[in-house]
Structure formats: C-alpha cells, structure tokens
C-alpha cells in the first residue's frame, strides 16, 4: 500500500511567508491545504465584505459622513400626492388638536423634547400634534423609530419632504377634514438652522422664501408664532426680512417681531408652559456684528446684514436642537427671533 505524498501548502500568507499547513487528498487543489482552497477563500472574502458593509451602515447612523453633510435642494422635491397626505393625517389621533410644525427638523430632537414637556409624561394625551419635515430620509427614519419607541406615534410624525412643497397641501387637507373656516390649530412654525446656501446664485434654494411665508400667513390664526434661528447672520437677517415684509392682499403687514411668546396663542396650556421660560433679553446691537466669524463676513455681503435687529439672547423654549447644541459647545453666536401673527385690528398699527 503506497502512501499519499503530503507536502507543505504553497499558499503565501499576506503575500510573504508560506503557509505552515500541509496539503491533503480530500478534493480541491492538491497544492493547497483545506483552509486555503479557492472556495473557502471566496466565502471568507464575501463574509468580510458583508461585515464591512454593515460596519459602514452602523457608522453612518452614529456619525454624519461628509456626503450626508452636503446640502439638498428643497425645490427638487415633488409635490405630495393626495393619497400620501391622507395616509399621513390618518396616523394622527385628533386633527382638531393644535399643530406645531418644524421645517428642517434634522433628527427631531427639538420636537421630541417638546412632546415630553407638553405631555408631562402622559403619553396617551391626544392634545397636541407635531410634524417634523426633513429632506434627509435617514434622519426621518431614525426620528420616527425613536418616537414610536417612546409611544408618541399618534401625536408626532416626521416626513421626508420639503416644506415648500408639502406645507400648503398638508394644511389644506387638514382644513378640509376638520371642516374649519380657519386653520386654528396651527400655533407654531419653527425654522431652525436652515441650509445657508452661501453662493449668490444658490440663495434662491434657501428654505424660507416669500411663498412659504405667505402659506404660513394664510393658515396661521392671529396670535400664532413663527420661530427662526440660525448661526449665520446673513441667513437670519434674510428670514427676518421676509417675515417682516410679508403682507396681506391690502398691503398690511401680517407678522410682528416680539421678544416673548404670544400670550394669545390659541393653545393656551402650551402657551402658559412656554411663557414661563421665555427670556425677554436681547443681544446688544453691536454684539451681533462683532461675534461674526471671518468666514461669515466673507460669504455675506453688506446688503444681507441688518445691524438694527434685536435678537433673543437665549432659546425661548429651553429646548435646543442638535445644531444649536453644537453651536453652543463651540461658543458660536446664534441669532433667534419670534414673530407673531397679527390680527386684522393691528394691521394698521404695525405700519
């Protein structure tokens, strides 16, 4: 009986040293050991590739990559269909409850904290509806998952959409379903740290345009509030200018800047909670320009900056968003303002 020749495996580990195992006669290549057979190596490579892909996905969930930081054009999103809007509103418990809308909500931290504060631990209280609008779908998925885990799915909803194309159809459908002559439940609209779009030819892509301000004007009752904030002075001044110049069909101004939340907000309980923590202090007018960074001075022209605007010195809700928390840690200036929807009797006094 002749024995089988057993030789050392010819596979080079890391392309340098020869494998110390020996070949065998159990199929496969006669010059390679069992661990280095082509089929085994191919399966191991596929497993490592799958593990690498899973690690990349988990890393993206924990940390925003450079590609995800790129700004998205809000006007590239198509208008929602009637069925999509109906499905969105069907998930809410009571459409007659007040609505708070956060345009550009990112991962939804602000609305989640506001929901906890307004409900006071009573998850089943259907007395408030909150909608967050965000362009990045991965942010919306994470935010909706967290809201569902906390039990706020019937009152809090995040949408992958643009506020410019979604807000008017959504509010119109709510008005039709509630059969209300006026959109009374809309008590607060927040636009916090929108994408700056610094280049002059791209400024038309900024989220707050006169058309969006007119939509808010048409559906917000007197006493409702619009909250704006940004770490870019030119962006904050532009949003301030658009809301200040928003007029009705008779040419009267519809919004007025205030230093505190309106006491006449339709949702009195929420107004009472937020009013107790509102700060009336404003930043000195000279401080707003001196705190600007050199990059902001470089990108912003002199016509984009108004040095006479008085900004709130702190967050009136005491509920910072993700971006605001980062700016506070870096000691960057934040420019905040609150506008109140004027009743018809005050149109003339606002001139």
Describe this structure in words.
This protein is α/β, with parallel strands linked by helices and 351 residues long. The strands form two sheets. Strands 5-4-3-6-7-9-8 form a seven-stranded mixed beta sheet, with helices on both faces. A hairpin with a 3-residue loop joins β1 and β2. The protein is elongated and about 100 Å long. About 8% of the residues have low confidence.
A few lines on this structure:
With 351 residues, the chain is α/β, with parallel strands linked by helices.
Supply the helix-strand structural class: alpha/beta
Give the strand tally. Answer: 9
Distance separating the two termini = 111 Å
SSE string: EEHHEHEHEHEHEHEHHHHE
- Percentage of residues in strands: 5-15%
Arithmetic mean of pLDDT: 77
Overall morphology? elongated
* Secondary structure tally, helices: 11
Give the helix proportion (percent range): 25-40%
Keywords:
single chain, 351 residues, alpha/beta, seven-stranded mixed sheet, two-stranded antiparallel sheet, 11 helices, 9 strands, 13% strand, elongated
Secondary structure blueprint with pairings:
Elements: E1 12-13, E2 17-18, H1 38-62, H2 82-90, E3 99-103, H3 109-119, E4 129-134, H4 137-150, E5 156-160, H5 163-178, E6 186-192, H6 210-219, E7 225-230, H7 233-244, E8 255-258, H8 268-275, H9 285-290, H10 294-299, H11 322-329, E9 335-341
Parallel strand pairs: 3-4, 3-6, 4-5, 6-7
Antiparallel strand pairs: 1-2, 7-9, 8-9
Helix pairs in contact: 2-5, 5-6
């Amino acid at each position: 009986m002749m024995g089988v020749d057993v030789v050392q495996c010819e596979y080079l580990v890391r392309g340098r040293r020869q494998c110390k195992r020996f070949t065998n006669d159990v199929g496969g290549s006669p010059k390679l050991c069992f661990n280095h057979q082509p089929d085994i190596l191919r399966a191991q490579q596929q497993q490592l590739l799958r593990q690498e892909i899973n690690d990349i996905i988990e890393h993206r969930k924990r940390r925003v990559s450079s590609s995800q930081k790129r700004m998205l054009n809000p006007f590239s999103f198509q208008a929602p269909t009637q069925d999509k809007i109906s499905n969105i509103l069907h998930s809410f418990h009571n459409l007659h409850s007040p609505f708070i809308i956060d345009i550009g909500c990112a991962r939804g931290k602000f609305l989640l904290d506001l929901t906890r504060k307004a409900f006071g631990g009573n998850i089943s209280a259907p007395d408030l509806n909150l909608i967050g609008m965000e362009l990045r779908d991965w942010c919306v998925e994470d935010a909706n998952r967290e809201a569902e885990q906390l039990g706020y799915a019937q009152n809090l909803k995040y949408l992958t959409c643009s506020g410019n194309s979604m807000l008017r159809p959504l509010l119109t459908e709510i008005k039709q379903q509630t059969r209300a002559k006026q959109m009374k439940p809309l008590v607060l609209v927040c636009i916090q740290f929108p994408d700056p779009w610094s280049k002059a030819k791209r400024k038309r892509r900024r989220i707050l345009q006169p058309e969006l301000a007119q939509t808010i004007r048409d559906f917000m009752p007197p006493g409702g509030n619009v909250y704006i904030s940004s770490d870019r002075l030119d962006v904050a001044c532009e949003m301030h200018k658009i809301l200040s110049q928003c007029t009705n069909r008779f040419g009267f101004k519809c919004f007025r800047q205030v230093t505190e939340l309106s006491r006449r907000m339709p949702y009195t309980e929420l107004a009472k909670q937020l009013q107790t923590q509102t700060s009336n202090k404003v930043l000195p007018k000279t401080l707003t320009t001196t705190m600007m960074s050199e990059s902001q001075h470089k990108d912003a022209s002199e016509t984009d900056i108004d040095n006479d605007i008085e900004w709130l010195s702190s967050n009136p809700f005491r509920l910072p968003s993700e971006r605001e928390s980062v700016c506070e840690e870096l000691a960057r200036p934040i420019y905040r303002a609150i506008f109140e929807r004027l009743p018809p009797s005050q149109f003339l006094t606002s001139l």
